[in-house]
Amino acid sequence: MTVFTNTIVGGRGGAFSRAMQNPHLIFGFVIIGCIALAAVVLPGLLGLDSLAVDPLNRLKPPSVAHPLGTDNFGRDLAARILAGASTSLSLATAVTLLAASLGVAVGIVASFSRLLDHVIMRICDGLMAIPALLLALALTATFGPNFSNLVIALVIVFVPGIARLVRARALALRSETFVEAAIAVGASNLHIMVRHIFPNVLSVLAVQVTFIFAETIVIEAALSFLGAGVPPPAPSWGNILYDGKAAITKAPYMVLFASTAIVITVTGLTMIGDGLRDLVDPRMGARLQPGMARRLFGLIRPRTSEGEQQ
Hints:
The protein is mainly α. Helix content is 71%, strand content 0%. Helix 3 crosses helix 11 and helix 7 runs antiparallel to helix 9.
């Protein structure tokens, strides 16, 4: 069993009991769980249609018939926001899973080949030098504004940061005793990557992906607001903000409710990330040996620099 597995599940109570004692983690999952549940259940339960147009009821304020009011096409704003939550969470899930998978594969492979490491890291440096929103905007403008192209563009944006983070952790793990022992008994590089390196990078990866999830939602809203994200009339929080911009003096609630949904979702995801960071941070567990924990986890940062690990 790898060191990471021993550390997390070992000791009295293990990781699950520590997670149950972490209010950030619990509240974060409750917030995101409620948003996801509402996005899935409420539209069908209440018969909400996010695309139903009613020109006679344009820009109506919140009422019994329309709890959050209507937009500039007479569409129910509550239905639009719930459908936008489904769009944002689906997009963020797809981007996070694909970016994490590719980033882990690229980072681990780069740590085992000096030539690939040099080439891949230079490409990552070039991509990371461009602000995330600007790069995503350029890619979506090139590919075209639709859901699939938006996923591809955001994966390209986030893979370099994950690859660098995983590569730095993999290089540190290669000097650990259990990896050197595996090499001494003749284990192949593939076996070492899968059996020893991959499980031990999950600690830093788990924290990083929650922030990528949150950043994906913010970038998607920004791109949709700029007209390069999810194309209308598909519901999106960014599209609602864009529509609300033209009617902000008459119907400020459109911008208010959509931005509040984004803030609450990102806050919940940030709380999950903070909770996971506390869970894997060695300073949060007195039973961990300081020397081993410091080598295993180190300081979790969103992005790494070239000089952090050679």
